[in-house]
Amino acid sequence: MDEEYPPGTVRLVDVQGISHAKHASGVQQDIVLVPAPSDDPDDPLNWSPRRKILATASTCVYTFTVGTASAAIYSILDPIQKATSLTLADLNSGTGYMVWDI
After folding, report:
1. Which of 30, 31, 40, 67 has the CB geometry, 3.0–4.6 Å to 24, for a possible disulfide?
2. Are 91 and 81 in contact (CB under 8 A)?
3. In terms of pTM, does the model score above 0.70?
4. Per-residue pLDDT tens for 46-87?
């Protein structure tokens, strides 16, 4: 049976054993491992739980810091208020929403 599949389609279960990809071991030998594990210590699948937590925490801190810095525009709120019809309270509320939306 030769079917057309969309690009990026991956077979996750190989009951017939026709796939040449790496399979799980034990009772779940019909499960295809995607992505296939490697022996590389820099492969995230091989990282220790501590390293995974550190990488995730670093990414979260970086994202929060960049987002907060881009929302901290308090020194320019007075000229914006004078140039537009927005009140200072509205501008402060908008800035607060930007920080908490991150």
Report:
1. 31
2. yes
3. no
4. 999 999 999 999 999 998 888 777 666 677 888 888 899 888
